[in-house]
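[job 0412] stage=fold_complex status=start
inputs:
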Amino acid sequence: MTQTPAANNGLLNRRWFLKAGAVAAGAAVLTPAMADGPWMTYPGQSPGPYGAPSRFAALKREQITLNPLGPGDGASCSPLQSLNGIITPNSLHFERHHSGIPDIDPEHHRLTVFGQVKNPLVFSYESLLRYPQQTKTWFLECSGNSFRNTFDEAPDLTAGEVSGLFSCAEWTGVPLHYLLDEVGAHKTASWVIAEGADASGNNRSIPMSIAQHAIIALFQNGEPIRPSQGFPMRLFVPGCEGNISIKWLRSLKLSPTPAQTREETSKYTDLLADGTAQQFSLKMEVKSVITSPSGKMQLPAKGIYPITGLAWSGQAPISSVHVSADGGKSWAAAELQTEPSPFAPVRFRIPWQWHGQPAVLQSRATDAAGNIQPTRAVALRKQSPLVIYHYNGIQSWQVDASGKVRNALI
Amino acid sequence: MRSSDTCQKNQRKTRCLLLTLLAIFLSALQSAGASAETPLGSHQIPALGVAAPANYESVVMPDGKGLPKGSGDVDSGATIYARTCASCHGSKGEKAGVPLVGGRGTLDSKNPIKTVGSYWPFATTLYDYITRAMPYGQEKSLTPNEVYAVTAYVLYLNEIIPENTTLNQENLAAVVMPNRRGFRPAKDFQPFR
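[job 0412] stage=fold_complex status=done
writing structure:
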């Protein structure tokens, strides 16, 4: 078997695994009479009402307390390093709440659409279930994702701990424009002010040009959306910072101007070095992260490993992902394992031969609009120090000679 | 696209015209068949919304629209603040964590401190936020008069309004915040293509 190098420090031709697999396939031998373990000698558990993962593969979100003053004002990160494909299981979808998760009885929940409309209307959960629905595989990213890599020192973190305020699900719901048609939105209504029914009553103003692509999401990966994701209904605005996809959606006000809510002034604005701030930078930038090998992992021995990760952009579908094993000196194109589509992440991979030498693994995404993921230095230059929103710098994982992988700021 | 390219190449105009007509005829047949088989078009809305209350409101706007009737002054605000806010934000709004005062003149420094006084562009936002989200743990427990009062007190702590001020639905929007001109829409702020 010839191993063609694709870039320096062990990156191999992305087809290499395919060829190796073809040879190995014939080698498997079936021995039906033998038991691999006790589980082959007695019946297992009966089917249950709601499934749970294997006790050998139970995953956990990492929880972040953002504010000791407010216990519900926190977040939890998807364990990106343990997942494959692009879908995040519902129990592992990241969370960011400003005042905890409300326990809403859908019978008592209403969505009111009003303001600059012909007929202000109220919709129940039951009634929205009867509307035509759309199903989309869309990512959601918190504007503050990867904030811990914006500081001067690199904390020793997993991929999920750094960049797990990012998840992706199949969302099913009612296109917002159906409701806008039904209420008869005025042409002058260029903003939609969305409000949640949680204790913080989280509210954001969204330009109509963006809101018209949104759905009122009712289902997440096939089941009713989780309370932590806005049950009974959330706004889902694809490609945009997660904060505007208002959970527990209770009202939409159509307005000629934005409301200048606390979340779009005090928070979620980008303070620049000159002391002025940018508002409504809503679309998420092109970004990628290698999820394996990644922080806190240990390579057991020299040999061939798949480098795999996720790439996404709120601006256009991903067109390519390049991977480097020498800290960005040489790059090779990775294989895209999933079909790029608007507002969906792609899973990429490339085989890598680790020779037992130090290495720095990086990935760099490019989208169909020509946006290229910047280096950390370039990404940080945009903003005032201490501002953590919309950070999309290239992630570096440092592998030392013993095979330990660590988060690095390069 | 492709059929017009072929037309140019072949220069056989009559044949092209016939082909085009045939294509139109076939597609008309197809769509007629489709609509006959689809009882409810995917864009047909069942229209199940019911009339909303005429006075429904959800938010306070920068021009003061959406503010309820009521009023409150700095003095009574100080009392309410001491009782319901000080434990988390400090008796003068100074407590680290979520400070409500300070930071003026720091926005262009290496250590910018964003507070109501240094960063917030609109006073109406303070009313909107306190009435929906504060006091944390007992959200929506304050009456409009109490929210006006505590809003006045926080603005007073930030030296934005004098101590003898009474705020109400008429004058809150007129309060000019120090960082009123500090914001602009993002460079890439644009409609989706």
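[job 0412] summary: The two ends of chain B are 23 Å apart (CA to CA).
[job 0412] exit 0
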